Amino acid sequence: MFFTPVVRHRAASPALRSFDRSFERFVNEALVNSAKPDVRLTQDDKAWTFSLDLPGLARQDLNIGIEGSVVRIDSKAEAARQYKAAYELPQEIDAAASSAKLENGVLTVTLAKALPVSKVVQLAIQ
Fold it and tell me: pLDDT tens track of the chain, all 126 residues?
């Protein structure tokens, strides 16, 4: 069996980016899932709220990044415990209205749903 490295540019089409996310999900579920804590997810009309147990990590050790409908949580390299996960939600996230709290080893993240922006343009009738 031969393995050949593949070089792709980041300015690739959205289909390739979707493949990257699918592959990342597959790897997370297949290989790393046993090391991940359970995620408890709740949802209402305005936001998703999920919490997970991360004992041994401080606020300064965690990074939370939001890009579109994907939220990535990872620990810094010098942290006592390593954690890395990415979650894709079915709707865009409003990062400005979202929040995160770490209390007693439990990370609670509230992700506000972004309201869809109407792109309707009114035409003047002459």
Answer: 555 555 555 555 555 566 677 777 766 666 554 455 678 999 999 999 999 999 889 999 999 999 999 999 999 999 988 999 999 999 999 999 999 999 999 999 999 999 888 888 889 998
Tell me the HSE value of 66 on the side-chain side, using a 13 A CA sphere.
Answer: 19
Torsion angles phi and psi, residue 23, rounded to 5: -65, -40
Residue 13 Cα to chain centre, angstroms: 20
Q: Which long-range contacts (CB under 8 A, 24 or more apart) does 29-32 make?
A: 32/84, 32/85
- Using the CB atoms, write b or e for 5-38: b if 16+ within 10 Å: eeeeeeeeeeeeeeeeeeeeeeeeeeeeeeeeee
